[in-house]
Amino acid sequence: MEAGDAELGVLCADHHPGYSQPIGGGIAYEGYVSPSGVGYDIGCGNKAVQTDLRSEDLDVEAVMREVTRRISFGMGVPNRERVDHPVLEKILRADFAPQRKLHQLARTQLGTVGSGNHFVNLFEDEDGWVWVGVHFGSRGFGHKTASGFLALAQGLAFDERAREGEMDSPPVLFPVDSELGQAYVGAMELAGEYAYAGRDVVVATVLEILGCEAVHEVHNHHNFAWREEHFGRTYWVIRKGCTPARPGQEGFVGGSMGDDSVILEGVGGTEAEESLFSTVHGAGRVMSRSQAAERIRRRKRVVDGRQVWVQEQVKPGVVDWPAVQARLREQGIVLVGGGADEAPEVYKRLPEVLAAHAGSIRVKHTLHPLGVAMAGRDVFDPYKD
Question: What confidence score (pLDDT) does residue 384 get?
Answer without folding.
Answer: 41
